[in-house]
Amino acid sequence: GINAEYGDPRACTKVGKLKGHTDNVKALVLNADGTQLLSGSSDGTVKLWSIGQQRCIATYRNHEQGVWAIATDEAFTRFYSGGREKTLFETDIKTSESYLLLKETGSILDVVYDSNNDDLWIGTTETSVNKWKLPSEILKPAAHSMDDATPLISTPANTIKGGHGLKKVYTLSDKQHVICTDSEDRGYLYNVLGAKLVKELGKVNVKDEIEARNRQEYIPNWFTADVKTGMLTIFLDESDCYSAWVCVKDDTAETDNKINYGGLIIQALLQNWVSGSSCPEDEMDCRLYGKQCAIPPHTPFALVEGSDGCGRTLFRIRVDETANPNDSRILDDLIPGWVYDLRVKNEMPKFTKIAFYVEPYTEDPAPKSREGRLSANDFLAISKVIEYVGDKILGSQEGPNPPAQEIMIFCNKQRLEPRMDLRTVKHTIWKSGSDLRLMYLVSS
Fold first, then answer.
1. How far is CA 198 from CA 170, 192, 316, in A?
2. 353-360 and 436-442 strand pairing
3. How many whole angstroms separate alpha carbon 14 and alpha carbon 398?
C-alpha cells in the first residue's frame, strides 16, 4: 500500500501508520534501536520517519522512477537506494548529499551492504548478481547534480552468473508434464507429479514440440502453472485439485487402478508429516502414491491464502522438514480442511460422472430414444463400453455374441479408439452440453 504500517509483534497488534507516500511502498529499513525508519516508494522518493513522533522528518528525491530497494550502513548514517531506473544512489541521511554510484543493466530489486568489506551486492531483473566495491571518501564529488549521469563506479568487482529465467509455460494434454521456455527461447520438459526436470530440449519450435507430445485426450486441469518468478511454480487449489481421476493399468491386478493426480501430489508433499496417517499396505491406490510421485525431499512448498498464490504466504517448508516436530505442529494449525481430509482421514474425492446413451448406429442425427440413460465415471474407457454392448445389449439377443473386437463405437460419425475415455469423447468429439450419445456397430 501507499502507507507504512508498524506493530507490536508481542501482542500481534498494529501500533501506527506512517502516511506520506503517493504510491506503493516497496522497501523498508529500520535502524538498530527502532526509532527511525527509511521507506522507498514507487513514487520515486525515499522518506525518513520518526517512529516516536509518527511523522516524516526528511524526503530524498534522487530518483525519477520507483524505488524498490534500500540498504544502509551499520551506523544508519548513509543509505543506498535503487529501483526501476537501474541507477543506485548513495545518500547521507543527515545532510541529504547524494552521489550517483553506479548503473546496473537491469532494474534493481535488492541491495545488501557488506560492512566487513565495504561492498554492495545487488540483484536485478537480470540473471546475475553483482558485487560493487564502494569508492573511498576522497573520490566522491563535493556535490551531486541530478543532471550528472556519470556514475562513480563503472564496472562491478565481481559477478555471480545466473541462469536464464523461465518466461512461458505450456501444460501438456496428459496434465502430468509442462514445457517451459526461458529468456533465450530454450525449452525444458518438467514432470509435475515428480517435481523434477525431465529433459532440456534446447532451442526448439515450442509449437511443434507441444503438438508432438500432445495426443487426443482430455484430463481436467488440476493445477495452475506459473513462471512469474523465473522458476516453475505449481499452485493447487481446493476448487480443482482433486478433479483429475485416471485409470492406471496394472498387470498384477484384475482391475484397473483409479488414482487421483491431486491426491498423489498432496500425499507426496506431506509423506513425512507426523500428523499425517499412513495407508495400509494392502491398498493399491496408496501404494501408487509412492510409485507415481517420487518427489525429491528438498522440494519446497508453501501454504498461501487465496487462489493462484495471490494472497499472504502463511508457511513455507521443504518436504523433508515436515517430519520436524515443531514444523509439524505448525502444519497442524495451518493445513486446510480439504488437504487434512485426504492426508489424515484418507477421504478420497468423489468421482465425476458423465451421462450418456448407447444406441445402434444410425445416420439420423436425432436421438433414437431417451430411455436407457446411463451414467459412469468420466474416465471410463470406451473398451468398457464395448464390453457393455457385447454383454448387456447383444448378449441379451438371440444368436451368438460377436467378439469384442468386432464391435465398433461411434460418436458424431467418428469411430472411437478403445483407449479413449468418456470425458475425452465429450470434450473433443461430442462438444455439446447435452448428454453424450454413443452408437455401436457390429462389423460383418
1. 15, 10, 25
2. parallel
3. 82
Q: How far apart are CA 263 and CA 252, in angstroms?
A: 22
Condensed to tens digits (0 to 9), the pLDDT of residues 24-45 reads 999 999 999 999 999 999 999 9
Q: Rounded distance, CA 167 to CA 153, Å? A: 31
User: What would the pLDDT profile of 198-250 be if each residue is shown by its tens digit?
Assistant: 999 999 899 999 999 999 999 999 999 999 888 899 999 999 999 999 887 76
CA distance 177 to 192: 6
Q: How far apart are CA 176 and CA 41, in angstroms?
A: 41
Nearest partner of 96 among 25, 144, 42, 30, judged by Cα? 144
How much is the pTM? Answer: 0.67
Neighbours of 52 (CB within 10 A): 10
Which three cell numbers mark 374? Answer: 446411463
**Do 280 and 266 meet the contact criterion of CB atoms below 8 Å apart?**
no
